[in-house]
Structures are given as structure tokens and as C-alpha cells.
Design a protein that fits this description.
Mean pLDDT: 95
Distance between the termini: 26 Å
CATH topology of the largest domain: Aspartate Aminotransferase, domain 2
Number of strands: 13
Helix content: 25-40%
Oligomer: single chain
CATH architecture of the largest domain: 3-Layer(aba) Sandwich
Largest sheet: 7 strands, mixed
Number of domains: 2
Number of helices: 10
Shape: globular
CATH class of the largest domain: Alpha Beta
Strand content: 15-25%
Strand order of the largest sheet: 2-10-9-8-5-3-4
Radius of gyration: 21 Å
Length: about 375
């Protein structure tokens, strides 16, 4: 039976990528050595690393005004580090609270000692993302932090907000590689873990405006950030300050090449919209319960409930019989969550939507 896997992360890889990794795993460079054991100081890995950095820059359409590096840190580490790289202890910064991960980012900001302005708070139900045009952003704010896609509640900004001269910091872990509309001129920093749209767990991407990267050399000293944790030190070392996550970077390389072979991020964006249309057409049929503002529906995370918790569980069990896996809702919410990142095929999305349709007709 074919498996249709909708994990919120680590996410499904395309079959072509899985097979290529399998074929090259044990003798990656034609010298009898696996990527899992190659020296990160070898010419083979150095070539792979530089190629992947260039691929990432091209795939994500990063302009010359910004630098790109690979980090071993995940989003939660970046919640803390980005504040120390972009502001001094006495500075003002602005945050939005639109879900689980943005809430954690806010907590790190408060812990930093900065003056934090919460310009939008979506609690308690996080059903909408508010109206950015109404937010009161302090003129002295060093940046506005925005989580572009909220994986737990299934919300996403259809247009990424900008605020004149105040730059934005974008958590794009679940959307980088699937959107073409990043407002680079207004963006101070983008951070994203690979395991959603462009690889596997173990590596993340940092994209930082060049002038701010240089300025961070002094700012991080104010907070006494260790050299090995600074973005500029990792960038200077070409993302190999210490032993980098060699295998995840190898997997990212394969995934980025696959994205390019499909037509790039514009194709990923097109497919994401097509997958979303399939699923939301079933949600809009009336049986499934969905409390998110339609203006902010996520193109990647489809979150809904059935009339009872018992039926939620029945839906999950019936889905498993059809090879549909990993659709249980987030632990604190319950219900159903099907996540469809770049590696989930249009076929799998169609099969899930068809299952929803048949289940609604049979049990609704």
C-alpha cells in the first residue's frame, strides 16, 4: 500500500530525493566513503558545501544585499540569538504573538532585557493574524518580528507585512522555499529550519542583511555572546566554523536541486496553492469544523476538527487504513492537522481530499 505522509516536520521528502540519497549514501564521492563519514575539511565536502550555499542563494532568490549561512541551531535558538545580533540591551523591538512558536519567540525577547512592544496578540484562540496596517510600531524599534506561517493553528500571511523604514525579521521555517514574495528591501533577517520545505532536520538557514551582519560584530559583544554562536563567525568560516551537519547539508543539496528541476520556488508556490484548494474545498463543504479566519488560511497546515473528539480519532483510524499517516492535531489542540510542504505530492494531496470527501459522505 502506498503511504501518504503528512507530518508537520520533519516532513515528507520527494521520492526522487529519497532514492538519490539512498543511491549515493554509502559511496557519495566515488572514493568508497559515505557522506556520513567524510571529513568536513576535505575538498569533496568543501565543494559540496559551497555548491549548496550557492544553490540556496539562487533557490531562495537572495539579493546581493544579504548574506546566507548554514547553522546547526534550530528556530528556538534563533529566537534568542537574533535579538542579540540586531539590537543592544537598551533598544526597542516589536513582536507579534500569533501562535505557539511566535509566543516562544516573544518569551525570548522579553528575557533579553530589551523594551519589547507586543504590537499584535492573537490569544487566546489564534484564529486570525490581525491587520498589520493598524499596528502601532514604535519609530525607534530596531525590527518587527513576524512568524509568516503558523504550523499549529494553520494560519499564514497572504502578503508579508512591511513597515516603511522599520525592517522585519521573518521566521520562515515552514514557508521558505515555497514563497516568491519575500520583501527583501524591508527584511533584516530570515531564519528557517530545513526539515519542512528543503531538507531534513539538523540544519537551518540564516539570511541577514549585509550591513546588519557587520554591525552584529559589535552588538553581540554587548551581550557577551560566544564567538561560536555568532552569525558573523559562522559566515566568515563559510558555514564550517566547527564540524557542520554534513549529512543534513547533503540532503539539502539534493532537495534544492529537486526544487530547481521542478521549476524553482514559483512551482512550489503554485503546487502549494493547488494542494490548499483541494483540502479547503472539502472543509468548506460544511462537515468539518474550522475556526480560522479565511483571509489567513495556511497553504501548508490544514487544521480542523470533527463534531467530537471520538470522531476525530475515528477519522485518524480510517485514514490509516488508506495509507494516510501523521494527521493527528497538535498535542494541546487535538483534532486533525495535515501538513503539506514541498515534498508532499499533488497526488497525495488529492488522495487526502478524496478521503475527506468519502468520509464526509459516509459518516457525516
Amino acid at each position: 500500500m502506498n503511504v501518504h505522509y503528512f507530518s508537520p516536520g520533519p516532513a515528507r521528502l520527494p521520492e526522487e530525493v529519497r532514492n538519490q540519497i539512498k543511491e549515493e549514501l554509502l559511496d557519495t564521492f566515488g572514493m568508497g566513503v559515505s557522506i556520513m563519514e567524510i571529513s568536513h575539511r576535505s575538498k569533496q565536502y568543501e565543494q559540496l558545501s559551497q555548491e549548496t550555499l550557492a544553490l540556496a542563494r539562487k533557490t531562495f532568490q537572495v539579493p546581493d544585499t544579504h548574506s546566507l549561512l548554514f547553522s546547526v541551531c534550530g528556530a528556538q535558538q534563533h529566537f534568542s540569538l537574533l535579538t542579540q545580533h540586531l539590537s543592544a540591551p537598551e533598544d526597542e523591538i516589536a513582536y507579534t504573538n500569533t501562535g505557539v512558536w511566535s509566543h516562544l519567540a516573544c518569551e525570548e525577547a522579553y528575557a533579553s532585557g530589551r523594551k519589547v512592544h507586543l504590537v499584535y496578540d492573537g490569544r487566546p484562540n489564534y484564529s486570525t493574524l490581525g491587520n498589520p496596517k493598524e499596528w502601532k510600531i514604535p519609530k525607534k524599534a530596531k525590527y518587527v518580528h513576524i512568524t509568516v506561517n503558523n504550523t499549529v493553528y494553520g494560519t499564514e500571511y497572504k502578503e508579508i507585512p512591511t513597515f516603511a523604514d522599520i525592517p522585519v525579521v521573518l521566521d520562515m521555517t515552514s514557508s521558505l522555499g515555497a514563497r516568491t514574495d519575500i520583501p527583501w528591501e524591508s527584511t533584516a533577517l530570515v531564519y528557517a529550519s530545513a526539515q519542512k520545505n528543503f531538507g531534513i532536520a539538523g540544519v537551518s538557514v540564516i539570511i541577514m542583511r549585509n550591513d546588519l551582519l557587520e554591525k552584529s560584530r559589535e552588538l553581540t559583544k554587548l551581550d557577551r555572546v560566544g564567538k561560536a554562536l555568532t552569525y558573523h563567525a559562522v559566515f566568515d568560516a563559510k558555514s564550517a566554523l566547527n564540524t557542520p551537519p554534513v549529512f543534513p547539508i547533503f540532503a539539502m543539496n539534493k532537495m534544492l536541486n529537486w526544487i530547481a528541476s521542478c521549476g524553482g520556488v514559483s512551482t512550489m508556490e503554485k503546487w502549494a496553492n493547488e494542494k490548499a484548494k483541494m483540502v479547503y474545498s472539502e472543509i468548506d463543504a460544511g462537515f468539518y469544523l474550522f475556526n480560522i479566519d479565511k483571509s489567513y488560511r495556511s497553504r501548508h497546515n490544514f487544521v480542523f476538527k470533527l463534531p467530537s473528539a471520538k470522531q476525530d480519532e475515528h477519522f485518524i483510524q480510517e485514514a490509516q487504513k488508506n495509507g494516510i499517516l501523521e494527521i493527528k492535531g497538535y498535542k494541546s489542540l487535538g483534532g486533525i492537522r495535515a501538513s503539506m510542504y514541498n515534498g508532499v505530492s499533488l497526488e497525495s494531496a488529492s488522495i487526502f481530499a478524496e478521503f475527506m470527501r468519502e468520509y464526509r459522505k459516509k459518516f457525516g
